[in-house]
């Protein structure tokens, strides 16, 4: 599943389509794609894992789910796009994703303060929301899109390893300093992810995600599907403290 930084990269790559009119629409979506023809793209935005194509009176929301992908100015061989948008200066092809329309202003739909890569990210608000859920597990907290929009499983595992916190720690048990670390690193790692992904070196920087051995302690990692989210976790029982 593409995480928030990957959606920001898509937003940057698709920037040449801002201000352009959609001249052609294809794809196997059932949402009534004809509505998009001749619409002008006012802005390309992102919130967490959502890619947003804003037009004068409505917007298109794209969620790539688990296996979604995109191509700009090329087609994916052997695959039919869920939605293909054609412009005078190129085309945007979206595959294996969920697309739907949003009517009304995006600012009324999205709380940009919870997007870890937004200029309006509010760390204090994130801490307040965490403190309000003392039984929330760390492995679930980081995947809560209402608190950390854009954080996915890779970022979750790497952040918890960075700050030496066990994924089964509760928010009520976290010392204040550790909670500040968790909130700070959720944003910091997202920007690190962004830079590494653009440089095609993201996997080289993984310290915990999918790894077998702790690079700090040189002992085997534990792994399991934890919390309500049941997403894969990788952790070291020696250096990651369970609070």
From TrEMBL:
For this UniProt record, the keywords arranged alphabetically read as follows: DNA damage, DNA repair, DNA-binding, Endonuclease, Glycosidase, Hydrolase, Lyase, Multifunctional enzyme, Nuclease
Q: Which Pfam families match?
A: Fapy_DNA_glyco (PF01149), H2TH (PF06831)
- Please indicate which superkingdom the organism of origin belongs to: Bacteria
Q: Matching Gene3D superfamilies, A to Z?
A: 1.10.8.50, MutM-like, N-terminal
GO molecular-function term, one example from the UniProt record: oxidized purine nucleobase lesion DNA N-glycosylase activity
Protein name as annotated: Endonuclease
Residues forming the Formamidopyrimidine-DNA glycosylase catalytic domain are 2-102
Q: Does the keyword Transport apply?
A: no
Instruction: Give the organism's phylogenetic lineage.
Output: Bacteria, Pseudomonadati, Pseudomonadota, Betaproteobacteria, Burkholderiales
Specify whether rRNA-binding is a keyword of the entry. no
Which Gene Ontology BP annotations are present? base-excision repair
User: Known InterPro entries for this protein?
Assistant: FPG_cat, FPG_N, H2TH_FPG, Ribosomal_uS13-like_H2TH
Catalyses which reaction? Hydrolysis of DNA containing ring-opened 7-methylguanine residues, releasing 2,6-diamino-4-hydroxy-5-(N-methyl)formamidopyrimidine
Question: What SUPFAM superfamilies does the database record attribute to this sequence?
Answer: N-terminal domain of MutM-like DNA repair proteins, S13-like H2TH domain
Family statement drawn from the similarity comment of this UniProt entry? Belongs to the FPG family.
């Amino acid at each position: 599943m593409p995480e928030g930084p990957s959606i920001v990269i898509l937003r940057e790559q698709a920037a040449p389509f801002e201000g352009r009119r959609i001249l052609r629409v294809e794809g196997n979506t059932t949402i009534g794609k004809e509505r998009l023809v001749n619409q002008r793209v006012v802005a390309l935005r992102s919130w967490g894992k959502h890619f947003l194509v804003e037009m004068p009176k409505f917007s298109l929301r794209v969620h790539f789910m688990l296996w979604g992908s995109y191509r700009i100015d090329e087609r994916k061989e052997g695959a039919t796009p869920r939605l293909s948008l054609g412009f005078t200066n190129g085309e945007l092809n979206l595959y294996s994703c969920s697309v739907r329309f949003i009517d009304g202003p995006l600012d009324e739909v999205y709380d940009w303060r919870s997007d870890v890569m937004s200029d309006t990210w509010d760390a204090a608000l994130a801490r307040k929301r965490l403190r309000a859920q003392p039984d929330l597990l760390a492995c679930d907290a980081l995947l809560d899109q209402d608190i950390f929009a854009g954080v996915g499983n890779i970022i979750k595992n790497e952040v918890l390893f960075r700050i030496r916190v066990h994924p089964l720690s509760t928010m009520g048990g976290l010392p204040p300093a550790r909670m500040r670390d968790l909130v700070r690193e959720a944003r910091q790692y997202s920007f690190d992810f962004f830079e590494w992904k653009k440089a095609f070196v993201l996997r080289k920087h993984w310290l915990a995600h999918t790894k077998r051995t702790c690079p700090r302690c040189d002992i085997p990692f534990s792994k399991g599907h934890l919390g309500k989210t049941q997403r894969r976790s990788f952790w070291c029982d020696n250096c990651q403290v369970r609070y």
